Amino acid sequence: MSDEIGQAVAVSDGVLRVRAGNPSPMTYTGTNSYIVGKDSISVIDPGPDMDDHRAALLAAIAGRPVTQVIVTHSHLDHSPLARPLADALDCPVVAFGPSDAGRSAVMQGLAEQGLAGGGEGVDHSFAPDQIVQDNDVLPGGFEVLHTPGHMGNHISLAWQGVMFSGDLVMGWASSLVSPPDGDLTDFMASCERMLARSEAVFHAGHGDPITDPKGRLQWLMDHRNARSDQITRALKNGPLTAQELTARIYTDVPKQMHGAAARNVLAHLIDLVGRDRVRSQGTLAQDAVFELV
Fold first, then answer.
1. How big is the chain by its Cα radius of gyration, in Å?
2. What pTM was estimated for this model as a whole?
3. Beta strand 162-166 with 142-146: parallel, antiparallel or unpaired?
4. What is the pLDDT of residue 224?
5. 125 within 8 A of 93, measured Cβ to Cβ
């Protein structure tokens, strides 16, 4: 399915998608914002604070009353427009919490050491009006699922047989998992939880609808397990840092991409430490040396 940036496209009954004009290697064809409902509506993931995207959303809303602006997670390509749009529509911004909400103790420790997130960039000023919890039901019938992994404050939303999966599950690429905001242990648990759901279509933060969500979830989990196996095989030859592992594993990736790849390897190493398959020589940190248990 393809559409032009800024157009309101019906992707499910009662769901319009408006794509922001921010395509990039990290955002694919741009951030997907969703206008959900028919009379009283909700906006999911308003996206970056771009004047043309705001105008496109307001045009698609067409004067209908808006109950809430919901943010699945506070990366810079999803949340900055939330406050100005909500103010214009006189409704609250709803989310799991600020950008450091939902982090595990391990990731909080890494953040306190100075490790900062990569990828799309974090909206550090994000402050929702209403904080939701796992299993809450929002006005309009949205079931909230706290699905950390891509980011600690990430939520997914089940609504009338479809799932809004944010950046946890996308059809065009495996999700970025970049510590301390991304957590592979949480990511795998969230995928397991989503695998048990019955929704037939997932609407993601980027790309087209996912019409075989169970197949896609299984692929994502298999992909991550295969990468962890690669790492443990490489460590059989002796202790290595995340950077050294990246150079050995990502031989088909341009060196300018190795920084992002090393962050991905670190996410796997932290998960492997938690599962007692790998240990860190000294304090767990970005530049630590890792070895097999």
1. 19
2. 0.95
3. unpaired
4. 96
5. no
